[in-house]
């Protein structure tokens, strides 16, 4: 163990980190991640040079592979798999380096990971149940009792049901059929992995920082109050677009046009785009800087019809972004790519109590976009364990 080297590296890291945190008033977490990543890369490269080895190339390969596909098409679920594959390979690499080189920093990283792992194993499931039930009561206190607002409660009850089934099922069922209890557990584990993949790439997508050279900012519509006025949720989307509008105007003296996108629902008296336009004008945005797309009925149509307007207005080409609530921008970005729009999204803040419910709803929507694949995998899981159970009945029981 090279203690002087590691102590010097840690001192250097914390000194620079302190300077970074004092220098930046906003986005401190992203700056912390960036500096930590740079430091760890430099530190492990130094160890590789000392040992004359190249094992770091393995996680580096997966990282570069992730970067290539992410910056090519940000809103693809495969990016989540590549990101998590990189993280797993990096953890494996740190473990190897810690064992072979007795790295003090490696020991620290692994100690933190092992501590978190044991916390998850010991309390994770029960902590999740308590958190989901508590969150569901908070949501119901602030929101209506519609099905989309009950998702955290439904998930908590499903986990409780699964725990009860796995606890008492083996005591009730015949021994040959106990293997069937693995079906719901395996399917639940599969969807947990799929959800983790979706959540990790969705969170990463929140760090978009578009350049201040946009021609358009598309604002995605939502429902209206009494069919006439924007809801608080929709107002936040518009406010986020206005914030970008004003920053670009201050930076370049050339503000983008706000493209309000939303048609008229069956229970609405005016198109959402019109209500959004009126709200933006009330906030001081000039009417000439606002365009309207008032035909769309869903997010896919928001993107398709907005694209047609922008191409008509600027046939030579344009730069654009879109705004929505932070939990929604990844799926909205998927729709944008589906219609051939290469644009990024920026999210407006959502009340923290509502985020678990919102991300669950988004996950369900994204999962339904790939329902055939999920049905096939769930069917194969059920078929596999059923065959094992049948074999167990005829040849073991």
Automatic annotation (TrEMBL):
Pfam families (UniProt xref): DUF218 (PF02698)
Locate the transmembrane regions by residue number. 6-25, 32-47, 53-71, 80-99, 105-138, 150-169, 175-199, 373-395
Q: What does the UniProt keyword field contain?
A: Membrane, Transmembrane, Transmembrane helix
Gene3D superfamilies listed in its UniProt record:
HUPs
Please name the SUPFAM superfamilies in this protein's record: MFS general substrate transporter
The chain positions of domain DUF218 read 215-364
- List where this protein forms a coiled coil: none
- InterPro entries listed in its UniProt record: Cell_Envelope_Assoc, DUF218, MFS_trans_sf, Rossmann-like_a/b/a_fold
Q: What is this protein called?
A: YdcF family protein
| Organism in which the protein naturally occurs | Enterococcus xiangfangensis
Supply the source organism's classification: Bacteria, Bacillati, Bacillota, Bacilli, Lactobacillales
